[in-house]
Amino acid sequence: MECKIRCWRIEDAEDIAETLNNKNILDNLRDGIPFPYTVHDAKEFIQAMNAADSESTFSFAITVDDKAIGSIGAFRQSNIHSRTAEVGYYIAEPYWGQGIGTSAVKQLCEYVFQNTDIIRLFAEPFAHNASSCRILEKCGFELEGTLRKNAVKNGVVMDMKMYSILKE
């Protein structure tokens, strides 16, 4: 199945609200996303991403047949890390295991490396999230190490993995 990344549209709100009302997705994301996730929440997110600084926030809808089925972004770090950006993404569960995550991450890397001065992208998936780790590996990210007891999610202390890819 082919996917594309594109700028957010306010019309994507209903699709994203449906996607994020899934604990299987939320359990692999950072805290701060409301549950239940409403269309209003999605509209606020889309508006915030579209209004964000275009030199530091690179946020896109992941789409199949122009329907938003996920989100992907790269977020520039600050100070001495200003040429580094953190990558984050999620995909609606019905689309898992179809190569969409790999395609979206490749598209994002290409966009960031071709259109910005960023030289390093990194991602920190939970260590138990083998699917996300595999997506990064298939996109050329290298495992730099395990961040032991690096996060608390749902009251559980968890390891995370540090992956990065460098601009060629």
TrEMBL record:
<keyword id="KW-0808">Transferase</keyword>
<feature type="domain" description="N-acetyltransferase">
    <location>
        <begin position="3"/>
        <end position="163"/>
    </location>
</feature>
<dbReference type="InterPro" id="IPR000182">
    <property type="entry name" value="GNAT_dom"/>
</dbReference>
<dbReference type="Pfam" id="PF13302">
    <property type="entry name" value="Acetyltransf_3"/>
</dbReference>
<protein>
    <submittedName>
        <fullName>GNAT family N-acetyltransferase</fullName>
    </submittedName>
</protein>
<dbReference type="InterPro" id="IPR016181">
    <property type="entry name" value="Acyl_CoA_acyltransferase"/>
</dbReference>
<dbReference type="GO" id="GO:0016747">
    <property type="term" value="F:acyltransferase activity, transferring groups other than amino-acyl groups"/>
</dbReference>
